[in-house]
Design brief:
This protein has 209 residues and is an alpha+beta fold. The chain has eight helices and four strands. The chain has a four-stranded antiparallel sheet.
């Protein structure tokens, strides 16, 4: 119900004013004692990639990975460990501080990191982005590069072999595979890159540091 002094037009009593002042003071003290948090943001572009290379020209194309799938690498042990080492946080704490979203209609991930200082926030975001790119290359791109390089290496001698030898041993098929491998090498995606360097997007935010 409404206070009586609002209904009958009377002014608030001194006690009411005192309560209001005490409430403001307590609110200010609570805000001041709450640790400040800083949030840094970095943008990373990830070229379209696939989980495997298929050299069969008649096979249906392998579907590319979604950004959501690739963003899961931010929770991988190597990435979390790298950020923990750079910021001094525990590996259990780091995933709670990392945020990620995607720019609509693009291949760009936006990574955020929350910390108790501006320097740590920027360091965490930068480390997370670079560790993501490195882990993506190690687990996804490097195996494909190695696979294709090995095929090219093993079929290298076929080019200079006499035609009669190549035909009698069924080498034309291997030569086609070699050409497919070389073509696939040219189509392999790059590692990706940081498109917008780490920067603070929220300063002195009062919340869990």
């Amino acid at each position: 119900s409404f206070p009586r002094w609002l209904l009958d037009g009377r002014k608030p009593t001194r006690l009411a004013w005192l309560g209001a002042v005490i409430g403001l003071v307590l609110g200010g003290v609570t805000y001041a004692l709450t640790p400040a948090s800083y949030v840094a943001q970095v943008s990373v572009e990830l070229p379209e990639s696939r989980v495997m290379v298929d050299l069969n020209p008649l096979a249906p194309p392998v579907k590319p990975l979604t950004l959501d799938s690739e963003a899961q690498l931010l929770r991988s042990t190597p990435v979390v460990t790298a950020v923990a080492d750079a910021t001094g946080r525990s590996s259990d704490d780091v995933p709670k501080r990392i945020g990620v979203s995607a720019v609509p209609l693009s291949r760009v991930l936006v990574i955020t990191y929350r910390e108790s200082s501006a320097t740590k926030a920027t360091t965490g975001a930068d480390t997370a982005a670079k560790a993501l790119l490195a882990e993506r290359d190690r687990t996804l791109l490097a195996p494909q590069r190695d696979f294709l390089s090995e095929i090219v290496r093993q079929t290298e001698g076929l080019v200079s072999a006499p035609e009669a030898v190549r035909i009698s041993s069924g080498q034309p098929l291997a030569e086609r595979m070699r050409q497919e491998a070389i073509s696939a090498q040219l189509r392999l995606p790059t590692q990706g890159s940081v498109t917008i360097a780490p920067r603070l997007i929220r300063e002195h935010y009062r919340g869990d540091p």
